[in-house]
Amino acid sequence: MHRRVFLKGTAAAIPATVALQMLGGRWVFAQSADFKNDVDVLNYALTLEFLESEFYKQGNGAGLLDGNEATLVQQIGADENAHVVALTDTIKQLGGKPVAAPKVDFGGAFKNRNGFLKLAHVFENTGVQAYLGAAGFIQEPAILQAAAGIFGVEARHAAVIGELLGLKVEGGVFMGSTETPKTKDEVLKAVMPFVKG
Amino acid sequence: MPASKGREQQIAQAIQAHEEAHVGALSSTIEDLGGKPVESPKFKYPSGTFEDKAKFLATASTFEELGVKAYHGQVTEIKTPELLGAAASIAGVESRHAAVLAMMTGGEPFPAPVEGTLPMEKVLEAATPFIKS
After folding, report:
1. Are the beta carbons of B70 and B118 closer than 8 angstroms?
2. Record: contact A153-B109, CB cut-off 8 A
3. CA dist., res. B12 & res. B68, Å (int)
4. What is the ipTM for the molecules in this complex?
5. Cβ distance A73 to A65 under 8 Å?
6. What pTM was estimated for this model as a whole?
7. Options 1.10.3720.10, 1.20.1260.10, 3.40.50.1100, 4.10.91.10; which CATH number does A34-196 get?
8. How many structural domains does chain B have?
9. Rounded mean pLDDT of B72-81?
10. Is the pLDDT of residue B80 over 90?
11. Has residue A23 got a pLDDT over 50?
């Protein structure tokens, strides 16, 4: 098994410019203290997936969308449910204990279509950034493969919701030629307003 | 879900700009690692690809879905976290392209809850019909 230890010291193994060039200098070195092990990373992902899953359950239940748009957003909700199940199963297989679903409150997000989709856009893009920011901590290749597979689907969701909202193509549907990672602290700060314990 | 012609153009132009950026980033990274970037192959596209919007977008969709599976098929082969992060940050954008093109062509923006993978030989096999030399 190849161990992927994401510490600043390992960067010396390749030219320092490499990743920075590819990412236009936006690569954020995750803090090594953020996660102890793969179960920690997976529980972090599970917390975000619980949030998204409940968000779509409430939003899709509010009857704000019609036609093809409603179908697409229901598919997104089903994907998030599948992610919750997959992460929970994986954590158990690794001998870990899945976190409980957080209590959430989405405020006035479900008053109308735009409110629902705009918050969906925030959550999906935050999800993309969270997975990318945590990827370097994952040590087991099979788990990295699964997390990457979920990350890609979150990017699909983000783009489709951006397009449903008719947001600008660059900076709304797409977020540049590369995705941008966020640290755990940044992600938790972004979702904290919706978590009630 | 039909988008206006202007919107479709903006999307296709943004995708083009991203792919150009990916070519530049990968080339310079390969050089930084002491490798030699491959030359661009010469391409051929199905007859009428650039005379018909539907054909153009359908071919684009094929390439984006193939690109997604190609990146995801190599995840466990990348050994440095920095390169993994860089490759993932490109792969995510390919996923966005694939989903939006599927929306524009009446395809399936979300084929599965997790991205699929293809090994290198299968990707090359799928790309072969488009490569002249």
Report:
1. yes
2. no
3. 17
4. 0.96
5. yes
6. 0.91
7. 1.20.1260.10
8. 1
9. 91
10. no
11. no
Helix-helix angle A67-93:A113-134, to 10 degrees: 30
Of A131-140, B13-22, B108-117, least confident by mean pLDDT is A131-140
- Chain A contact probe: residue of B114, B117, B118 with most A CBs at under 10 A: B114
Query: Does B18 contact A177 at a Cβ distance shorter than 8 Å?
Result: yes
Min CA distance, B11 vs chain A (Å)?
Answer: 6
Contact status of A73 with chain B (Cβ, < 8 Å): no
Tell me whether A170 touches chain B (CB under 8 Å).
yes
Tell me if B42 is assigned to some domain: no
Q: Are A141 and A1 in contact (CB under 8 A)?
A: yes
pLDDT of residue B1: 52
Q: Is A75 on the interface with B (CB under 8 A)?
A: yes
Upper half-sphere CA count for residue A40 (Cβ side, 13 Å):
13
pLDDT category, A8, cuts 50, 70, 90? very low
Cβ contacts below 8 Å, chain A against chain B, sum to 180
pLDDT at A59 over 60: yes
